[in-house]
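May I ask you for just one protein sequence along with its backbone structure tokens in two labelled lines?

_____
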Amino acid sequence: MTLYSDSMALSPLLFTIISFLLLFQLQATPPPFACDFSDPSTRSYPFCNPKLPIAQRVRDLVSRLTLDEKLSQLVNKAPPIPRLGIPRYQWWSEALHGVAGIGGGIFFNGTITSATSFPQVILTAATFDSHLWYRIGHAIGIEARAIYNAGQAIGMTFWAPNINIFRDPRWGRGQETAGEDPLMTSNYAVSYVRGLQGDSFQGGTLRGHLQASACCKHFTAYDLDNWKGVNRFVFDARVSLQDLADTYQPPFKSCIEEGHASGIMCAYNRVNGVPNCADYNLLTNIARKQWDFDGYITSDCGAVSLLHDEQGYAKSPEDAVSDVLRAGMDVECGSYLTEHAKSAVLKKKLATSEIDRALHNLFSIRMRLGLFDGDPIKLPFGFIGPNNVCSKEHRYLALEAARNGIVLLKNQHSLLPLPKTNPPISLAVIGPNANASPLTLLGNYAGPPCNQLTLLQGFQHYVKDTLYHPGCDGGAKCPFAHIDQAVQLASKVDYVVMVMGLDQSQEKEERDRVHLDLPGKQLELINAVAKASKKPVILVLLCGGPVDISSAKYNNKVGGILWAGYPGELGAIALAQIIFGDHNPGGRLPITWYPKDYIKVPMTDMRMRADPSSGYPGRTYRFYTGPKVYEFGFGLSYTKYSYEFVSVTHDKLHFSHSSTHFMLQNSSETLRYKLVSELSEEACKSMAVSVTVGVQNHGSMVGKHPVLLFLKHGRQGNGNPMKQLVGFESVLLDAGEKVHVGFELSPCEHMSRANEEGSLVIEEGSHLLLVGDVEYPIHVIV
């Protein structure tokens, strides 16, 4: 199997020299920290004593601050407090799919000038591999700590992951998410957070310092940026209690309760009239009291000012400041608090107790990061150095993520993989993304990558004399197509790969799409080249959100289709390896691909469930009732897999011994159900179902294969999803190999649904477990 070669980046000798120079710089440029034990003026403070509990240390620190000093610390650019030996701190740093320089907490202007850039999250999600997600989070956390140790950071709080649900295919930031499924997004959140913060994959081993701090965003029901004049700053998301309970909130609940994230970010938008950052019920009752969140809460940037200046929710700037702090927010990204907080205190609209509470949360995080325990180089994470950034291990991990995430959507007559012959085949690569800047492959919120390769360079690794034509002017916008030139080139070669799709000019933060077609003249170019080529063409799509490629799907002259998302810094190698058969594709779509007519549905309609009476089709694979271009979980391979249910520990679940059943009228029938809230934890555990699925590879190639287990409720309608993902596992199978995959299902979690009041219920009746096209019945008796 041909893998990534170090010769394509740094030679071993050059890498050794650079590592030595970086290590020298590390020793010469200490990271910023408080409580320098060599300084007699600060080492005697109780807040500098690492043997004391953090709560006691923070109380001592806050008690020493003046009002002005306190207020100065409530914004992301926290200034130093020289008299106490406390350095400045920047709360805003980004690490969505690699450490980035966005926000001001990280600098790439020293001896470390880049960081590993993993595939954009939506493609990594397509691996359905929680272990991979954890490893990526852990690698990012290591590189973040290395940059800090090298003296190139003034913050270690990273505002990632984005765990909003990819509700609407037009959303420009959907690329940042793990897709449309709440269970999958929850698992992604937990895996990434545990990795970044330095916990184990299973969790529960994080003791002492955080490796880095993760922040789950955007809390809550945020998935519209700028669509037809409606922007995120003023949008009031009208969300039912039912949809909140089983779609929008579960990822945040998991992020806090299981991932133990040390930060969350409240979103710009309002939900049912209340701005998220001023919602006491959301930030305090739910996050802190119900879910036991013990970290800090930041606003999104500029969100506090919106309460008064744009949304009209607060009567004055002072009221806006008071509203967010009383709701439970701790730090503002912006300067509104700097400008108006003191006035709010003087006007007695803001109590100092609210300020002290926020400061307690903020300084607790800085202490948990080890920034108040003396020189960080002498602490547990002090051994992490520049050689841990852009390491061979991390770069290979980026390659692995891209290879296992790319999804094969069509392979007519087994056109792929292309043959590797001697002499080699003749190949043309055509399209606006075929030789686009390597940065195009990264997606948004990316830092400077270790490697910069175009897709064309990846193909040239296999076919040195690969021919190329962009096909379009103006990049992915493709306002004008050079069809004659592209056709002439295509007619000369054995095979044609067309690299089309989107880029950040089409989808990104503050840029939602208004259609689901390929931009400009792309489709016209595809049809013309496909018609002229000797053999059916291979179509590669770069995009975060889905596009309607129905015409290519059903065009016999388009023999293969691959979705490559934004595959990261080594995506060029990953794609070429798949097309030439050095890697067997196994990715599966984490989102539904809708037909272009879906744009008739207003993006502002937050309802998940379909409404047949009004023609509303619903959203995501769980509730959408209309036609699909490709469905959630779809993905082909160069091999064939089969499934069987080997064992299921319980096929009948009796809940009659637990709490009193209830009666629910549904049209002409009466249903029995249990409220999950009235079932004890012991009852839920006692009803756990162990499922063993046999999976066999019937092909001649080794393959990494995600096994997806769904549950289908016996009664459709009544708010039930048509099916829902209840478990997934990625397994590696040799040719002909058969393995058993185990799943543990909790009826209270996996067999419940939310009712209209937002309460989880378990309904009596038949259910079906689904894996592939194999079913297994389970009966719930109330």
User: Anything to note?
Assistant: The first strand starts at residue 77 and ends at 78. Residues 337 and 730 are 47 Å apart (CA to CA).
